[in-house]
Amino acid sequence: MSKNYIIRSFEESDQSKTLIIFNRFAKESFAVYCEEELQENQFLKLLDNAKIILVIEEKDKVIGFGYISNYKPYPNFSHTGVLTYFILPEYTGKGIGTKLFNQLISKGREIGITNYLAHISSKNVQSLRFHEKLGFEEVGMLKNVAFKFGELIDIIWVQKQFGEQ
After folding, report:
1. Contacts (Cβ under 8 Å, ≥6 apart) of 54
2. Phi, psi values for residue 132, rounded to 5°
3. Neighbours of 30 (CB within 10 A)
């Protein structure tokens, strides 16, 4: 694994770099639900709900990002966060995703998040395996809720809890 990467807080100057990564996944995989590239204003609306956003950088190149967003906007859900992350395919399988996950969890704990959810396309086998390896359990499935690349996809919800609720 490359030791030349850092995980840091998202900065305004990262917007276009992270959008490029997001749009690559939109066009090439089931990791993003939309098939069309998002415009910057659409992407920023997506990130508006994020409580924490982290960026992975290698030699001044953004290679991935992740964030924790609200599950619901109500205060009584403040201990629950939804995880989302994207790492360029050429950097996966090297432990970087696990390090990003651990940093997100650490930052989440600082603001009281102990319950984590992720929703994953049933066609995104790599992400499903990643979450299973991290100890997430499948807690629900929404069947045939979207079309992508001409196929119906299910959305699988997974959950992991840390500590007392």
Report:
1. 7, 8, 9, 10, 65, 66, 67, 100, 103, 104, 107
2. -60, -45
3. 20
- Range 100-127 average pLDDT: 96
Q: In what order do the strands lie in the sheet containing 50-58?
A: 5-9, 50-58, 61-70, 80-87, 115-121, 151-161, 137-148
Q: What is the DSSP letter of 12?
A: G
Strands (E), the chain: 5-9, 50-58, 61-70, 80-87, 115-121, 137-148, 151-161
- Could you report the per-residue pLDDT of 41-55, keeping only the tens digit for each? 999 998 998 999 999
pTM for this entry = 0.93
Model confidence pLDDT, tens digit, residues 34-43: 999 999 999 9
Q: Residue 80 and residue 64: Cα distance in Å, rounded?
A: 23
